[in-house]
Amino acid sequence: MSSEMSAGLKLLHDLLLKLAEAEGAMAEGPRLIGVAERQVALGEQQIEAQKQTIKDVRKAADDFNLKLKTKEGEILKLQGQLNTATSNKEYDIIKGQIETGKRDKGDIEEQGLMGLEAVDQAQKKLKELEAELQKRKQQVQTAKANFDAEKPKLEGNITSLQTQIAECEKVIPASEQATWKRLRAAHGSAALSPLDDDFCAACSNRVNTQDQVRIRTGNLVLCRGCGRILY
Ligand SMILES: [Zn+2]
Known about the structure:
4 helices
């Protein structure tokens, strides 16, 4: 037969478990908001980095454009020198230099086009990141709105459980209240454990006959294995 004390402790344990669950639900909202806010911060960092990338690739494209102008100037100059060549040998050398210059110009043009393509790609990526950031900001708003809607109910639930627990704690004798307060502060709902046949349900330690008798006769008994209050 379970004592009045054991029945009271069981109720107390149930209430503490419910309180732990309610407090967990209360912590979940801010946790989700925090996760969403970190995603926004990350998105903002990615956008800053992408803007720098755009600057870099645009600078590279501009450099190729400048190189191209320089190369074109060189070729024009060489073409001018062709007319003033004083020997066939000199003429052939300049002609060779012009050919090389034109090949170089082709290479630069190709690199320049690739550079412009890179600018386009980088700008496209920036647009995607900006759209993604808007989505993430929306997720923060949704998480906050959800939590605001849930909060009063959760708070009411927690307050109600705390009131019931305070009432229920009276089952513990005044002489043991200090022990109880210490255990509850340290372990919360894990401060209590039911007997499962002859064993502590929490740690599976066998509870000796003497302790079992003491539990049944309404004493506050701590498990010798884990220190929880047994009921
Ligand atoms: Zn135990």
